Amino acid sequence: MKQLIECVPNFSEGIDLQLINQITAAIESVEGVKILNVDPGKATNRTVVTIVGEPASVVEGAFRGIQKAAELIDMSKHKGEHPRMGATDVCPFIPVANISMEETVKWSIKLAERVGKELNIPVYLYEESQPNKERNNLSVIRSGEYEGFAKKIKDPNWKPDFGPSELPIRSGATVIGARNFLIAYNVNLNTTSVKRANSIAFDVREAGRVKLDDKGKKVLDTSGAEVRIPGKLKGVKAIGWFIEEYGVAQVSINITKFKESPLHMVFEECNKSAYERGLRVTGSELIGLVPLSAMLDAGRYFLNKQKLSSGVSDEALIHIAIKSMGLDELAPFDPKQRIIEYQLNEPGQKKLVDMTLHAFANETASESPAPGGGSIAAYLGTLGVSLGTMVANLSASKKGWEDRWKEFSDLAETGQQLKSELLHLVDEDTAAFNGIMSAFQLPKSTDEEKKARKQAIQDATKYAIEIPYKVMVKSFETMTLLKVMAIKGNPNSVSDAGVGALCALAAVLGAGLNVKINAAGYDDKDYVAKKLSEVAALEKEALAKEHEIIEIVNKVIAG
Question: pTM of this prediction?
């Protein structure tokens, strides 16, 4: 499963589109980087670019953008309403999928160090990347702006984290760091009252509201500061406003910590607050893009609230999330356009898992060597765990078993996760084979080319060993679920668990054959011997587990 990070560099140019295009072209020159949005502002004289991809590609793309901005933008001539301190004013990294904040911090520091060293630009770390909490706030770092930074940078307290302690006249300084993803979200109300919308905003936002005494005056503490009543949700900023276009008031929300305050929980708290005030939430809208995990978590929450299994497909989870939060009340909500991970799918990209069964069979039966046994093994594993997941879902909804729905829902979720991983490996096995073929096509005229070609072949071969081995491991993992379903699941579907076990065994053994044939072409004999030993152990365990499951299935069928 690919790691994805988002990067949102802010460049101090919002008027000259030709110049902006040169910066974005530099970013896009990196393979694997996708620009999701370019938002220039004339008044601010600033352009916000949103890019996403795997970490190494995004770091390289951001570096090239910062490099190009330093070449083209002269900060000594820059004017604009927005605070700024450099040609690339700020460059945040945001974890999106399958990557922790700690890992994202490391990537941001890697970029900061490189910018300071190679481009000779002073770099300050901020947010999660800055260990000194006295200088992790962007507005505090940027205080004084470009015009005051030549003096500020000389202060020992404001020595840059990387790069020179002098301000380059043209490029200025920049700020780089990792922060949480920000979800911009509006909740619709059945009122036109901004006052009522604000009341709900004060209830849910972290900052809450100012405390008032019996006479309606602000309560102050001993230092004269306003005393506040905190709101319900951490990392949430909110305010009420009226949208003339829709004729309704909304609670306008920024969720800065969506893991702590998930999208569905923000919706639910607004719902509760509205109800307590005699109002009703009619729906909501997302502004910009949203991570897939936020929508999947919402779908699971609402299904579990209904005491229904949440071990269903991503598409089903997204659908229930959209309908439960009314995300399509004001305008259609297209997941392909609004979810970050789906935006990364290249148009027209040919994937085996997107084919019909008929087309997949024809593709496999053609004269092309791929897809071959490795992809088929992965798909057999997918079919096996899909059957186990089906039994779990049927058990969760079985009449008379209502008190066990959560038990089977959790098992179905495990199955869905394994299904997603194995589906990914269907295409990945073919990609691994194609990687070997591509390596063999590399030039071999010079000694240096021969050396590079041999290394590329070896690297590709190792990958073509590891992928089917992953298929073995994941397919074997599915047998645990299938055994539980054979023992505890709906007895009317026990034969499905048995068929699933047969598929899983075929996947393990079939993928093992691919490991062995690819291992024959790898030069590291110690690695090969270890891997083949692991393969043999997995094959033995899978055969025993399949035999055990089929025995259980036959006993249940026999009564």
Answer: 0.81
